[in-house]
């Protein structure tokens, strides 16, 4: 139980009772009676009542909205910020010396030079990561397959390790 001298909240969620004893403190601003009602609904869901959030009607509405809504914006130079961003991304892959231009942008426009050696390293790593992603995408297009993620072996240890003299002590 929390002390009520400083206006802390006394909550007894374990026994099904929740409510405010006194006013809010800095760590719980925004909690209202609606929050208590939501907590009660969540506890009812956990207790085995029908899940009202993912009913059949709700999922059908969501699927319908997803079909109607396009997930990417059309690239336009004079449009919303998202459309401009898409335009520059499309333009980036057509430019020669694009990685050198990105290096200059990261270093001077975004201000990585202010961090000294760490800024230079960060800029180089960022550009190398973008280059590696582009090379991997190009590899997948040319080979026509997605590389498999290696799975860690399971089972017994390697017999060479078990036969090692270090294991026999």
UniProtKB/TrEMBL annotation:
Residues 148-169 are annotated as: Disordered. InterPro entries: NUMOD3. Residues 54-70 form the Nuclease associated modular domain. GO terms for molecular function: DNA binding. Pfam families: NUMOD3. This is Nuclease associated modular domain-containing protein.
